[in-house]
User: Fold this.
Amino acid sequence: MSLYFEELGYRETPIGVVSLRRRRELRLDIDVLEIKLDDEFLMSSLFTVSEIALARLGLAALTGPGRDIVVGGLGLGCTANAVLEHADVSSLLVVEMLEAVIDWHREGLLPLGPGLLADPRCRFVHGDFFALAAPGEGFDSAQPGRRFDAILVDIDHSPEALLDTRSRGFYRPEGLRALATHLKPGGIFGLWSNEAPDDAFTARLAGVFTDAWAAPVTFHNPLQDRPFTQTIYLARHAG
Assistant:
């Protein structure tokens, strides 16, 4: 392989081929790690500001003493790592459908993996987040029916731009109501989106949760040399 590009992992999955690659971004003179699903970019180490903000904004919105958290989507581990930066977090379940991504963390191919795995509060769950979010036993097979203080999700590009059509129902009112049953009273649902705030989706959240708002996250895109805005949606469950 060229020094400028290396494929670190490759796996066929039910929803496409997932790959991990390292490439040299010559304009910035840095190495970039990227996870792709077929031709779709799932995660890049070049853009992590909003993934970290998902954890920080979600936890900042909590008002009660509990800190049992679910993160939907492991990726490079940025959201999970930011959750664990909070000393008052008691437990973290990270739900990831793509087993290859979990393996790459366990094999040390991703820099945050060793730290996540070494933290006794953190546990990886190999499973379909959207299926587990439906009515039923929930995210923790060891404690069926367990509820959480926050559920933070970074899987699809946005509520309208999906990686797989099977998640479409999750973003409809019935899917959001099902998700809310897995939250404790006062619990927070947080959702990452690659798009600017969508008033229609915020209103949909407000129709299900007691409070809902969109937090724009703007950062400098060094490849385009301009600001770029993504969104963290937050909603509070009355219980």
